[in-house]
């Protein structure tokens, strides 16, 4: 490592600069989708579910878009359900058709629903396989027993290495996901008024006082009490449900970190070049 340091440093810095500038220049998924009228319904649903900002902020995603004709009964579902289902169609990594072709074994991909912190039994992951008989890429929920019937149709758009939009035959069925979403939404932001176990003080203080024991009454690594679950926008950005395939998540985070430090990189590169 020490011997080759002088020759690799400029290349490494240049690579970092490329990566960071790529992550900085954001895409807007709805602007990309609206260019292809075959996906206007899917795009409308993303807007209706208020997911465009979430997807854009991820920075590196693959969106599995469903053509208008195949959207099925998805459009008629309650908005909360649409939101949850659409989150399972957003993979937190970049996969275009070429990259999918190189996968020669079942691949677990993290989806945006995993970030909600309420995904269980693999609902936050997709299991992507090949059907060799018909040479198709198959997308399925990684929940046990989920149907393996959604196949890749083609590319809608690609902005490597940030955004890939692929079309799929219809929506991916994730067992149990609608039950989560159908929980009655809490009317206000006040979280869990019922828990009095800790009883921090007798007065009527609002529960936003950040006591470290706040989380204790609701163990979040199994079925979360439905009243806290779906509507609050990402109460826990990183899901504590650590799973085998969680390795995808930090990648996006490090991209953002790189992006935020790109100015620093420019300065580092400039001073390096000046010294060169
Ligand atoms: C994305 O595009 C939509 C529609 O044009 C617009 O309303 C929204 O503000 C854009 N978001 C960003 C972050 O540019
Ligand atoms: C592959 O596709 C064919 C044709 O749709 C289907 O009959 C078969 O069951 C599929 N195989 C697997 C393993 O899903
Ligand atoms: C992914 O799907 C394949 C094919 O059905 C299956 O053999 C494999 O066990 C699944 N992997 C996971 C982690 O669910």
Would you write up a description of this structure?
This protein is an alpha+beta fold and 276 residues long. The chain has a domain at 27-181 and 235-248: FAS1 domain (Roll). Helices cover 32% and strands 14% of the residues. A seven-stranded mixed beta sheet has the order 2-1-7-6-5-4-3. A hairpin with a 4-residue loop joins β4 (125-131) and β5. α1 (5-24) crosses α8. The chain starts with a helix and ends with a helix. Mean pLDDT is 74; it is low at 1-6, 11-25 and 195-276. Bound molecules: 2-acetamido-2-deoxy-beta-D-glucopyranose (NAG) (3 copies). Residues 28, 30-31, 56 line the site of one 2-acetamido-2-deoxy-beta-D-glucopyranose.
Say what oligomer this is: single chain
The secondary structure category is: alpha+beta
- Note the gap between the termini: 20 Å
Count of helical stretches:
9
Largest sheet: number of strands, sense, barrel closure: 7 strands, mixed
The fourth-level CATH homologous superfamily of the domain at 27-181 and 235-248 is FAS1 domain
Unreliable segments of 5+ consecutive residues? 1-6, 11-25, 195-276
Rg, Cα atoms, Å: 22 Å
- Overall number of strands: 7
What name does the CATH topology of the domain at 27-181 and 235-248 carry?
FAS1 domain
């Amino acid at each position: 490592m020490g011997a080759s340091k002088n020759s690799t440093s400029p290349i490494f810095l240049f690579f970092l600069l490329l990566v960071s500038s790529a992550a900085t220049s954001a895409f807007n998924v709805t602007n990309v989708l609206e260019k292809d009228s075959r996906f206007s319904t899917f795009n409308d649903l993303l807007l209706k579910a208020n997911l465009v900002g979430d997807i854009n902020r991820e920075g590196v995603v693959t969106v599995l878009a469903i053509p208008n004709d195949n959207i099925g009964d998805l459009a008629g579902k309650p908005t909360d359900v649409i939101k949850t289902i659409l989150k399972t169609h957003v993979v937190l990594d970049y996969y275009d058709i070429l990259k999918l072709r190189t996968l020669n074994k079942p691949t677990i991909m993290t989806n945006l629903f995993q970030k909600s912190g309420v995904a269980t039994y693999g609902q936050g992951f997709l299991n992507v396989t090949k059907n060799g008989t018909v040479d198709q890429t198959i997308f399925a929920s990684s929940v046990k027993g989920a149907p393996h019937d959604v196949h890749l149709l083609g590319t809608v758009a690609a902005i490597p290495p940030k955004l890939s939009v692929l079309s799929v035959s219809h929506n991916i069925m994730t067992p149990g996901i609608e039950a989560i979403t159908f929980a009655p939404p809490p009317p206000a932001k006040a979280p869990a008024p019922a828990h009095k176990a800790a009883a921090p003080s007798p007065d009527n203080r609002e529960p936003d006082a950040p006591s470290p024991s706040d989380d204790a009454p609701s163990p979040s690594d199994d079925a979360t009490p439905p009243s806290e679950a779906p509507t609050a926008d990402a109460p826990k950005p990183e899901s504590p449900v650590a799973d085998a395939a969680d390795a995808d998540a930090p990648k996006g985070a490090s991209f953002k970190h790189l992006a935020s430090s790109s100015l620093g990189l420019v300065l580092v590169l400039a001073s390096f070049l000046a010294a060169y």
